[in-house]
Amino acid sequence: xxxxxxxxxxxxxxxxxxxxxxxxxxxxxxxxxxxxxxxxxxxxxxxxxxxxxxxxxxxxxxxxxxxxxxxxxxxxxxxxxxxxxxxxxxxxxxxxxxxxxxxxxxxxxxxxxxxxxxxxxxxxxxxxxxxxxxxxxxxxxxxxxxxxxxxxxxxxxxxxxxxxxxxxxxxxxxxxxxxxxxxxxxxxxxxxxxxxxxxxxxxxxxxxxxxxxxxxxxxxxxxxxxxxxxxxxxxxxxxxxxxxxxxxxxxxxxxxxxxxxxxxxxxxxxxxxxxxxx
Amino acid sequence: xxxxxxxxxxxxxxxxxxxxxxxxxxxxxxxxxxxxxxxxxxxxxxxxxxxxxxxxxxxxxxxxxxxxxxxxxxxxxxxxxxxxxxxxxxxxxxxxxxxxxxxxxxxxxxxxxxxxxxxxxxxxxxxxxxxxxxxxxxxxxxxxxxxxxxxxxxxxxxxxxxxxxxxxxxxxxxxxxxxxxxxxxxxxxxxxxxxxxxxxxxxxxxxxxxxxxxxxxxxxxxxxxxxxxxxxxxxxxxxxxxxxxxxxxxxxxxxxxxxxxxxxxxxxxxxxxxxxxxxxxxxxxxxxxxxx
Lengths: 278, 292
Prior knowledge:
Oligomer: heterodimer
CATH topology of the domain at 62-246 in chain A: MetI-like fold
CATH class of chain B: Mainly Alpha
CATH topology of chain B: MetI-like fold
Helix content of chain A: over 70%
Strand content of chain B: under 5%
Number of strands of chain A: 0
C-alpha cells in the first residue's frame, strides 16, 4: 500500500481527524444520552427513564407529523427518482445543443441556490396559483383542499431530483453504450431493452439515488416550513415548533429516534456495499 | 437502436416541464416581485418601483426623508463573514481529516467513510438543536464549568456570533470532508513518493503536489459549505436566538412577520448575487465541474 508508506504521513493529521470525529459525534451522543434523563428541566443527570419515549409516542400531533413526513418522503422519492432516471437516460442520447445545456443547468441550479430562496420562491408561486381565478387555480385549490400535502410533495420532488440524479448519472456513465445497441440489434423493443438491460444495470445507481432523495426529503426544514399549509406539518417542522416553545426531554426522545434511524440507514447501506464488494 | 436515441428529448420533457413550472418560474417570480410595491402584511401590488432595492441602502424617517441605513448591509456582511469563516475552518479541519482517511488501509477507510456519512445523513434541525443542549446557560458546558468551580455563574454562550458560527461549522463539516476524501482516494500516491524521492520535504510535497492535485475536491467542498451556510436559517435562528440576523432568517422574517415581500425578494436577489460572485471566483479554478 503506497498510501501507508512514510512520505504520505503528516504530523498532526491524525490528531485533527480524531478531534473532528469527536466534534461530529459529541452533540449527537449528548442528545441521545439526555433523552433517557429522568429530570425534566435541565441537562443534569437524574437517573434512567424511558418515559420521554412513551410520552413522545402518545403525542398525537407528533405521530401525525411523522406520518406526513413518511408520505411526503416516499412520494417525493418515487417521483424524483423516476424523473431523474428518465432525465439521465435522455441526457445520454443525442440532444439538440440548447436542450442539453438547459437540462444540465436545471440539474445544477437547485444545488447552487440557497434553500431559503427556493423556499420563499415556491411559497410565493403557490400563493399566486391559489389566488388566481383561472381554471388551473381552482383545480389546484380543490386538490390542495383534499390533499393538504400536495404543495409539500411537489416542492420536495423538485429539490430531490438533482440528488437522485447524480448517482444515477455516475452509474450510467460506467456502462458502455454498446450494451444498449446490442439489445436493439437483437430486436428488443425500446421497452424490453429498458426492462431487461437498462434498468437492471442501473439498479445500484437508482437505489443510492432513491436513498439520497429519501434522506433529503426527510431532512428538509425551511422549504416545508414556508410551503406547508397549517394541516400539513412534517416532523422537522413540528420539532421546530416544539423547540420554539421550550426545550423538553420529549424533543430529545424524538430526536434520538430520528438519529438512530439515520444511523441504521447508513450502516445498512455500508454493510450491503461491503457484502457486494467481497 | 434508433428507437432509444430518438426518445431522448421525450425522456427529458417531464423533468424539464416540472422544473420549469415549479423551480424556474418561481425564481423569476421572485425577481419580478422585487420590482413591485409592498402590500402589507404580505403580498405585492402595482406599480412597479425600485423601492425594495432602495431599502437595501436607505431607511425612510418620520419626515419621509431617505436616510442612509447600513443595517441590511451589515446583515450581508455578517452572513459573508460567518460563511467565509465557516468555509475556512471546515477546510482547516476537513482536509487533514480527509487526508488521514485516505491514508488508512482500505478496510479502515470504509469505516471512517461511514462515520463521516452518518452526521451527513442526520437531520440538520436536530444537529443544530443539539448545540442548544450544550451551549445554553443550563447546558453541558456551563454545568461542567460550574461544577468544577471554574466559574460561579453561567457564561452566556448562546445567542452570539460564536454560537452561530459553531453551529454552521458543525452542520457543514462533512460536506467538506467527503469531496476532498473522494479526490484524495483517487489520487496517484506514487507522485507523493516521487516528490519525496526528489528530496521534497513533507510540507513541500503537500503544498506542491497533494494540494494542487486535490484542488477540484477542495473547491467542490468549499462550494458545498459556503452556499448553505451563507443562506442558513436554522443556525442563526436557533443558536443566534433570532437576534443574530443572517440573510437566511432576514429573508424568512420579511416574508413572514415583516410582511414586506418586495424587500424580501430584493434581499433574495442580493443573496443570489453574492453566491454567484463567490461561485464565479471559485469556478475560474474548475470547482463547479467537479460538483455536477
